[in-house]
Design a protein that fits this description.
heterodimer, A: alpha+beta, five-stranded antiparallel beta sheet, four-stranded antiparallel beta sheet, 13% strand, B: mainly alpha, 13 helices, 72% helix
């Protein structure tokens, strides 16, 4: 911009200087003006605009980088939500997973991308037993010692101490819990010591257990030795559960896979959101158009609207959910019952503004029916607003679902939804190690609601012709 | 003006009566277990006797009439399960003050935080405060309140080293609930103040003032802000009244013995008379709040006329 001015300034200066000196170039009187002639194509061009409402809207939308990023995130998330149950290695959302060996529920398993706990090199001897056709349960713990038993330390180390106890020779962990004492005279080994905690004697100074629990290896990767021992036949993966399928988001307090539940819940919540948005649009548009277009009904519908609008939405939501049987249908019904009001009023106001424009008068004079005018002349004007409200209805519906579940009137835990997952997770916030059960559904929910909110608003801005170039 | 007020008042009363009737009729469709503490153990005769005693065997229009008559005498009925036999009015009278206190405190905080934030956003369009405020507003509006309330409780209490539960005598435990409660209104105050101020800033009188050489600060505070605040006043009476109902989330999360947690409690225990009374109370608050807001607007803003314009539509 500045450069442009500089350039002009310089030219002006040069011109003035030249004029003052009097050495102006001779003026070619005939060459100053040239007849342009008539060009039909050029004339056509000036009267033609390639403005298209939708192209400008989409263009303006794609200028908003945050909104585009959110759109991509949301598309990926929704795509994944749909295909997730068809992916290999998925758990069922409502299956209670038991450890096939012990039969105990796999409660509150921490989130993990893999079931592999550790790897053991070839030729390691482990204590193991076959649990089924495919798996062995293994560990390298020889025995355990009760607290305050006297043991003989043969060799003292920072992390592992070699000990003897009741005829067994092995290693015990030396850490802040077991706190084995150094001998008064370091050379005086063996010496006697004791721990105030129970100890496990390991075969080697390596821990091949899952915090004391057995680990699992595939039957093909170990060879059975005598008296309950197995030897690894190659690099072997030691797994926390006898399965390849990991609990990516961990499990809940009855051993259900949180990963499957979160995605199943996302499907439920999004479904509720979309259906509510659809009903909001459907009822809102129908009532709004009639309200705005049919003058005879205006007063009546306005009075009804005033009554309905005065009732707090939350109260209707609570009341309907309280009276009806809890379930997805009840939730959708209760939410749809209140949400269309705002849409109807908006549509009505827009219709009132545009219904007497000239083109509508012309249509009416040509004898077009009211129905056709509504659908063909009025509705296209309202599409952008309708889409905005539908986009905002989805986070709204998800929020309402969370609320209704929170006060105890929502879906049962058999139908996972983001609302009841968060509500279940909320009960565990006192225990820091279980907070993942709240955090995962909360993150997914926040991403969805924030994306819809931002996309909806960006779209509304883009759809406003004032923002079109 | 008087005519408008009377008309508005009448329509509010009618609305309230309609709402109460709807709630009353709907709740009569509920299973009758909600009136008993030990439904399973009772014989049919006992159940019928109790229902007759409560007046529930009468035809519904008689029940409704009795209810309205009692309502006029200030009698909301008695609790059936939550605190069997206690009058609901006395339970509310005991619970409401705490909710009102918390609500007023959080309202004060959100006014103190939200309005300067909105004003700063309007002044620094696409500057730091505008960006910060936009992120805050989007987050608060999009994410369901329950989610960030829970996270504030979870990490806030840990960080402050206090118990997760509310203790009326210990002022430190008031901070998090009141602060959480204020976030929603902070965001909406900021959003509206920003929008109204930007609207005002584009008006001719602001341009004139600027041309006259009035300082930017004076224009903002003296003209723009004052005019932008007028539409906000409409919501203040409703906000004050709503404090009576308390925050359902906050009170049950922190176990605050107030009105918000009460509704969740009585729903959990299926105490029909209490659900009915509370739902009606909340509706009444909503309706009266709107009425007062509209009236206050009319008093404060001289541009609002109560005379219907002829031929406008």
């Amino acid at each position: 911009m500045n450069g442009l001015f500089e350039h002009k300034k310089r030219r002006l200066e040069e011109g003035v200087t030249a004029a003052v000196r009097g050495d102006l170039p001779p003026v070619d009187e005939d060459g100053l003006f040239v007849e342009a002639g008539y060009d039909a194509a050029a004339a056509e061009k000036t009267g033609y605009s390639n403005y298209s409402y939708w192209r400008s809207t989409v263009g303006a939308f794609f200028h908003n980088r945050v909104a585009v990023a959110m759109l991509i995130v949301l598309a990926l998330l929704m795509g994944f939500t749909i295909i997730q149950p068809f992916l290999p290695g998925q758990y069922e959302a409502n299956t209670i997973n038991n450890n096939p060996v012990t039969g105990i529920q796999l409660q509150n398993q921490s989130p993990s991308l893999t079931t592999v706990y550790a790897a053991a090199p070839q030729g390691i001897v482990l204590i193991g037993r076959r649990v089924n056709d495919d798996w062995y349960a293994v560990s390298n713990v020889l025995a355990s010692i009760r607290a305050r038993e006297t043991i003989t330390v043969v060799e003292y180390g920072e992390d592992w101490c070699k000990i003897e106890y009741g005829g067994l020779e092995g290693y015990v962990k030396n850490n802040f819990q077991t706190k084995l004492k150094l001998p008064d005279d370091p050379t005086a080994t063996p010496y006697e010591s004791r721990s105030s905690f129970p100890l496990s004697i390991y075969q080697e100074p390596v821990d091949y257990t899952n915090n004391g629990e057995a680990l699992y290896v595939r039957a093909g990767s170990v060879r059975e030795l005598e008296d309950g021992a197995v030897i690894t036949t190659g690099e072997t993966e030691l797994r926390t559960i006898p399965s390849d399928k990991a609990f990516v988001f961990g499990t809940n307090n009855i051993g259900q896979d949180l990963w499957a539940r979160v995605w199943s819940g996302t499907r439920t919540s999004l479904m509720i959101g979309f259906v509510v948005a659809f009903f909001e649009a459907l009822i809102g548009i129908m009532v709004g158009i009639v309200w705005g277009y049919v003058r005879a009904l205006d007063r009546f519908i306005t009075e009804v609207y005033n009554v309905l609008d005065n009732i707090p939405n939350t109260i209707i939501l609570i009341l309907i959910s309280y009276i009806m049987r809890p379930g997805i249908r009840t939730l959708i019904f209760a939410m749809s019952l209140t949400r269309w009001l705002g849409m109807a009023r908006f549509i009505r106001n827009q219709i009132v503004i545009i219904r007497d424009r000239d083109y509508n008068l012309a249509s009416r004079c040509l004898g077009t029916g009211t129905g056709r005018i509504m659908v063909r002349n009025l509705l296209p004007y309202l599409i952008s607003v309708i889409m905005l409200r539908m986009a905002l209805a989805i986070p709204g519906a998800i929020g309402s679902e969370v609320f209704i579940t929170y006060i105890g009137l929502g879906l049962s835990v058999d139908t996972p939804s983001l609302g009841n997952l968060i509500n279940e997770g909320r009960k565990l916030i006192t225990s820091a190690s279980l907070r993942y059960q709240l955090i995962f559904p909360a993150i997914v929910l926040s991403v969805i609601t924030i994306s819809f909110y931002i996309i909806g608003n960006a779209f509304a801005d883009a759809a406003d012709p004032k923002n079109h170039l | 003006m008087v005519k408008y007020v009377l008309k508005r008042l009448a329509s509010s009363v009618v609305t309230l009566a309609i709402v109460i009737t709807i709630v009353f009729v709907l709740l009569r469709q509920m299973p009758v277990e909600g009136y008993f503490d030990n439904f399973e153990k009772l014989s049919e005769a006992q159940i019928n006797a109790k229902l007759a005693n409560l007046g529930l065997t009468q035809p519904i229009h008689v029940q409704l009439r009795n209810f309205f008559v009692n309502l006029f005498h200030g009698d909301l009925g008695t609790s059936s399960r939550y605190s069997a036999g206690t009058s609901i009015a006395s339970i509310i009278a005991q619970k409401a003050p705490l909710s009102i206190w918390m609500g007023l405190m959080s309202m004060a905080i959100s006014l103190v935080m939200g309005i300067p934030l909105g004003a700063a956003m309007a002044r620094s369009k696409s500057g730091f405060w505008d960006k910060f405020g936009t992120v805050f507003i989007v987050f608060i509006n999009a994410v369901p309140a329950a989610v960030y309330y829970i996270f504030i409780q979870m990490y806030g209490t840990g960080w402050m080293g206090i118990s997760m539960l509310f203790d009326r005598g210990n002022w430190v435990t008031w901070i998090l609930p009141v602060f959480s409660m204020s976030l929603g209104s902070t965001a909406s105050y900021a959003m509206w103040i920003r929008r109204y101020m930007l609207d005002e800033m584009n008006k001719d009188y602001v341009r004139l003032a600027r041309a006259k050489g009035v300082s930017s600060r004076r224009i903002m505070m003296g003209h723009v802000f004052r005019n932008a605040f007028v539409p906000m006043i409409q919501y203040i009476p409703a906000s004050i009244l709503y404090t009576v109902s308390g925050s359902i989330y906050i009170e049950s999360l922190y176990s605050v013995p107030g009105m918000g947690g009460l509704l969740v409690d009585v729903i959990g225990r299926q105490d029909n008379p209490m659900v009915q009374a509370l739902v009606m109370l909340y509706s009444a608050i909503g309706i009266v709040g709107l009425l007062l807001g509209d009236l206050l607007m009319g008093v404060i803003d001289p541009r609002i006329s109560f005379v219907k314009k002829e031929g406008a539509r």
